[in-house]
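Entry 12.
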Amino acid sequence: MDTTSHTVAEQDQQPKQGPRTAAKPIEPGFVGADFPWYGLDDAWTGRRWYGATGTSPDGRTVDYGSLGHGDEPVRSYLAQDPAEGKRFAVVVTVARREARRLENGTGMLEATSVSSAAWLAGSGLLAATEHAPMERSLRQDWMDQQTALAWDLADDLDGPAWSSLTLPVDGTPQPFRYRESEYGWVLAGDAEGVHIGAYGRGVSAYGLGFGIVTEFAGYGG
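Predicted 3D structure (tokens):
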């Protein structure tokens, strides 16, 4: 009797095991890529989420993708109400690819470069920006104009629109090209096996660091 009572008492004092929570699945586009994914390093303690991935025109290989940090951006332009402001930094990883022929024989793909990362980052920032309330066709004209400008800027990383910024990548300082606009900031540079682009608003780029994502459990929430 005494032994049984003692055993039951010990069991009652054991911490209760809650229901097991299934691990969140990795977004399909991020599985099986032949290059490493980059996100903000462990100094970032805020929310993390999946962005989009992009494939080659024949759909056979993943060529780039983005991972977000902070608030998911909405199209807002210089929100007057601070509560409407969104603070985010999105990291774009672009696989290093040589110029290559599509497997279906329909054409050639250009080699990727830091400019590729800068272009994807710049267009990502535009997609998260609303210039002002305007009629749809005017909005499209503005987007077309700004998209062309973003491409021209990405193709001239040594031009006056860009400045130099050094940020840690896997703990090692690396040079980036950086520019600011009224909509936010964009930067681009190199890492092992990939090109890195990033864009953001409401978060300073100067305190950021990048690292290879080895565990996706922190994303998707």
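Annotation: Helices lie at 2-13, 114-127, 136-154. The chain is about 20% helix and 30% strand.
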